[in-house]
Amino acid sequence: MTLSNFITDNLSGECLVMGILNCTPDSFFSGSRKQTEEEVRQRALEIVAEGGDMIDVGACSTRPGCVFASEAEEMERLRFALPIIKEAVPDVPLSVDTFRASVARMCVKEFGDMIINDVSEGEDPDMFPAVAELGVPYILMSVKPNIREMALGFAEKVQQLRDLGAKDIILDPGFGFGKTLQQNFEVMNDIDFLREFNLPILVGVSRKSMIFKTLGITPNESLNGTTVLNTIALMKGAADILRVHDVKAAKEAVRLVESLHN
Predict the structure, then answer these.
(1) Burial class (CB within 10 angstroms; exposed 0-12, middle 13-18, buried 19+) of 9
(2) Which residues, at least 6 apart from 90, have a Cβ–Cβ distance to it below 8 Å?
């Protein structure tokens, strides 16, 4: 089964859970940082043991105020982490969180099919041609501040991708990117409008500032808030993938909401 078929087949059913594994020293949530061989292996095994359907691997932090790792450093981290993950959990689909087309090409050519998770709206001019050429699923994120502008942007970029031959496109409304706290909640309130695109939707709110700044807490204290927002997205029928730090909690939310709907 190809990775594209895995996504198509599974997204017709229960919402999938994507566990986060950051091989970085500076991601905003300290609990997600894994840098040694054993830390990477154990995190991959933990995601799967808790029911994770896929693993999203990040090697360049995009937290607010960060200094981006160089292209060479990002590649070096991925060349270190990906073999460990693939050996530990060989049958689990992988996603690479990168905004660089060169990194996307390197990962697919050296390590096989994987999802490309791009938080930059395709800012790299070679990204759309790269994912079309590679034939891999692509997560298109929006930094637009409201659903109307987001929908217009998605419509234009999805067409560009399709014109290039890209087929497996997943939409990410980009919670925490280019939005005020209030705008994040407005997007969540209107997220079901994105169903008009008839494309899978990824929701990534895990331990983000819309939770901890609103509640006056820290990312480490934001699991409950994450579960609340994930549940809202699930209740709206607007989440096909939940991208999370805490896989067990997300799987429980998915199962409870599925039981309610059934």
Answers:
(1) exposed
(2) none
Token representation of residue 32: 């997600």
In tens, the pLDDT along 142-173 reads 999 999 999 999 999 999 999 999 989 999 99
Q: Which residues are catalytic?
A: 208, 243
Residues 6+ apart with CB under 8 A from 38: none
Could you say which DSSP state residue 21 is in?
A: E
* Top-confidence residue, 61 or 29: 61
Whole-angstrom distance, CA of residue 49 vs CA of residue 190: 33
Phi, psi of 94 (to 5 degrees): -115, 150
Q: Match 């060349």 to its residue by tokens.
A: 79
Q: Which structure tokens are listed for 67? A: 């200094």
Number of H helices, E strands in the chain: 10, 8
Tokens coding 158: 């999805």
Count of beta carbons in the 10 Å neighbourhood of residue 114: 23
Q: Please, how many CA atoms are within 13 Å of residue 212, restricted to the half-sphere of its CB?
A: 15
pLDDT number for residue 28? 47
pLDDT digits (tens, 9 = 90+) for 216-261: 999 999 999 999 999 999 999 999 999 999 999 999 999 999 999 8
Q: Read off the amino acid at residue 6.
A: F
Residues 187-206 have pLDDT tens digits of: 999 999 999 999 999 999 99
- Name the pairing type of β-strands 115-118 and 94-97: parallel
For residues 185 and 146, the answer to whether their CB atoms sit within 8 Å is no
Task: State yes or no: pLDDT of 51 exceeds 70.
Answer: yes
* Tokens 């949530």 -> residue: 29
